[in-house]
Amino acid sequence: MKNRKYREHWYSGITEAIQMYVPGNRIYRTMEARRARIGTLFILPFIIGFLAFMVRPLISSLEMSFSKVNVVAGTMTPAKFDNYSYAFVADPDFNKLLVNEIGRMSINVIATLVLSFVIAVILNQDFKGRTLCRVIFFLPVILSSGVLPGIEKQNQFFNLMSSISESVNESSGVNLSLALQNLLSVSGVAGEVFDVIFQMINAIYDIVMASGIQIIIFLSGLQSISPSLYEAADVEGCSAWEAFWKITFPMVSPLLLVNCIYTIIDFFMKNDNQVVEHINDVMYGTQMDFGVASAESWVYFGVALVFIGISTLIITRAVKSYE
Amino acid sequence: MSKNNTVFIGENKSFWERNRRSGGYLLKRRALQITISVVRALLMFGLCFMIIQPLITRFSLSLMGEQDMYDSTIRLLPRHVTLDNYRIVADLTVLPTSMLNTAWISLLMSICQIVAATLVAYGFARFEFPLKKFWFACVVVLIIIPPQTIQTSLFLYFSHFDIFGIIKAIRGEELNLRGSLWPYTMMGLTCMGLKNGLYIYMLRQYFRSVPQSLEEAAYVDGCGTMRTFLKIMLPDAVPTIASCFLFSFVWQWTDLFYTRNFLTGYTVYSRELSSMVSKMAKYFSSSATETVTVPLGRQMQLIGIGVFICCVPLIILYCFTQKTFVQSLVMTGSKE
User: How far is A188 from chain B (nearest CA, A)?
Assistant: First the structure.
């Protein structure tokens, strides 16, 4: 049983479809046409769902972002780019929040990728208590899902609490990172770079909580590397350090892209994300402005897409240079 | 004796003797090994502690009476142990009802999602059909698009639900499905639920890694497509399906996005939890007119308990299934 391979372009499938799905065609009664029909049947739920619950709302959401929506009356009047210009020019918070979140995201994504890779490499080694560590490191998948991470940030008290604890630490000099930061800034070494690094260190809890799935994905990649590769390298006199860069890293690097995209999406969709909160406010708050809300979410989605595109480009370049 | 000297040079010698013979290499290597394992242990302990610590703090906080909150000598161990807080949180979040609702809705939704995702993933992994690349690109789009983008229009779509005008023709008006379970179930059954693209992707990856000869043997022996799928492919895929199911269940359990948009008719734990703060003032005031400002420390304590209650069933579930979970994920791997 040989499966028929289709040509590269997706639209070439249309002519094939006519031949395979329409009875009376010469090819209709062949085995491959039958398999094609069964295969389509298998993915039919997805096709229906995608058309009904994704394409349709996407189109209407796009339409809504270009018009003035009155929820109570249920009317929509075309408004061209009014909503978009409102989002960028008139809305006091949107620009600021968007820029903030983008900055926070680019740092967090890099930190998450590095940290989850390091943790995955460690968890892949053999040491005592490995099983326990694995269990604990997957807890963030539960603890950082859905409503849970946002709920405490929503509560203003936590911000208050953290500022208090910071000031307490400052006076007693216990906080090492703060002390180091002060020292470096006094001695004139600290620049933008150090600020970023300290920001990362202070955000390490958030980063660990966000990297549950990424660790799992990296770990699965590490486990699928054949041990014979390392054996061969060892026989040839390769050190562990070299083996890491010549075997482990290139083998896992395709997963870097998957993880990077996943992290970006995850970050963009989180409940504690300020832009998401803002969009929710505009939609369900006092404004009830669906038009502006959908315009803002399209801008947000566009930004996410640009980021995914850029990181895909960078990573595919970087990974290729390894091969 | 002579055998020992020739074959196993270092057999009976002390560590230092062997080190001398190797020209200092052995000591260096041993030192490096010990350093690595110490650093590793420190790092692991630190990170693990960081993950677990909030849970421990929440648990100990949850047992404290209110006066313990303001006692600065108390850090972790409560002096006035009480279970009153749990009772208050249970009242605030409508506990038995909301938890049971969450449980069966999560279960129903995960089953819908995983059944649909398994079928679709198998279709993508094993069949060649026209437009396959295009539809798979759509799966990727599904993973990428944040639900916030279509939230507004889905909201309106289900308020005035109709299929090609059929319902309007029969009932005279469109159905308002908001608040009922239907939108959610329909989306689950058609792979549009929470993070459904991810499950399709993972399961497809698994099905692709199963050797094709297995199915071919079944076909030769006269199995039909459906029977091959059910008897040959499914039994082996159980661990992977189970892990997808667990993901789905966990994410469903804590989800706020879909429950807030579609399930307004049901008391669901995640929504009760998110609206807990606003309900507190009313709960603690003795009469309807009086407004009490609940102290922030108290608020935090109660929210902490709410989060803790939400996590406990999931953590128990996870501990029981952890082994198959991790193993199956390792199996899904990056096999292309």
Answer: 30
- Per CB-CB distance under 8 Å, the chain B contacts of A220 are 329-334
| pLDDT (tens digit per residue) in B259-288 | 877 777 788 888 888 877 777 777 777 666
Has this prediction a pTM greater than 0.90? no
Nearest to A42 among B123, B130, B189 (CB): B123
Q: How far apart are the C-alpha atoms of A163 and A158, rounded to whole Å?
A: 9
Residues of chain B under the 50 pLDDT cut: 1-7, 333-336
Which ipTM score applies to this complex?
0.79
Q: For residue B128, what is the enclosing H or E element?
A: none
Task: Give the model confidence (pLDDT) of A266-298 as tens digits.
Answer: 887 776 677 877 877 777 766 677 788 888 888
Whole-angstrom Cα distance, residue A116 to residue A215?
5
Q: What domains does chain A contain, in order, with CATH numbers?
A: 12-80 (no CATH), 87-322 (1.10.3720)
Position A263 pLDDT exceeds 70: yes
Using the Cβ of B213 and the Cβ atoms of chain A, whether some distance falls under 8 Å is answered with no
Task: State the amino acid at position B64 in one-letter form.
Answer: M
> In chain A, at which residue ranges do the beta strands (DSSP E only) sit?
67-70, 75-78
Q: Measure the CA–CA gap between A310 and A307, rounded to whole angstroms.
A: 5
Q: Please judge whether A39 and B123 are an interchain contact, meaning their C-beta atoms are less than 8 angstroms apart.
A: yes
Answer yes or no: do B219 and A50 touch at CB < 8 A.
no
Beta bridge partners of A78: A67
Distance from CA of A145 to the nearest CA of B (A): 6
Residue with tokens 């390769």, as numbered in its chain: A238
Contacts of A298 in chain B (CB under 8 A): 149
Going along chain B from its start, the domains and CATH numbers come out as 2-50 (no CATH), 84-332 (1.10.3720.10)
DSSP A3: P
DSSP A104-139: HHHHHHHHHHHHHHHHHHHHHS--TTHHHHHHHHHH
